[in-house]
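User: Please predict the structure of the protein below. I'd like the answer in structure-token form so I can feed it into my own downstream comparison script.

Assistant: Understood. Taking the following sequence of 158 residues as input:
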Amino acid sequence: MNIALLGKKIGMTQVFDDANRMIPVTVIEAGPCPVTQVKSTEKDGYDAIQIGFRQQKEHRLTKAALGHFKKAGVAPVAELSEFRTNGDTELNLGDVLTVERFEAGQKNRCGCNIQGTWFPRCCEALRFCWWPCLPRFHVPPSWWFLWYVSVARPRHQG
């Protein structure tokens, strides 16, 4: 069975090998990930496991999500993810996956979910607007400028 874990990037650091070469390393907090659902071909049409990561307070979840976690017998988690299996899974509801399932020197494939907040935050901080981004930004668009001055300009009320 494939081994899957959810994690969060903590930061970057460096380690040195035997030849005193520096190797950049990404530090990841991986697991513990409780198994919240086991799907089978007979019931769901495919084989998969659903695991969670990062504990969450109960009052921040819906009653449906709390029922899902209580059925599995695990503490509420913030993130859920589903991974396909080959049907030969030995995992049950409530089992906890940790990094101890990996062996030393084992190759891993990592994926990431990038939150695209850098560009909007920069635009907000620098107060970008669409007009200076036009090709001829030193010349205002005449039809828009005339319409804005005559009709759409905010005026005093009263």
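That's the full token string. Residues 142-152 form the longest helix (11 residues).
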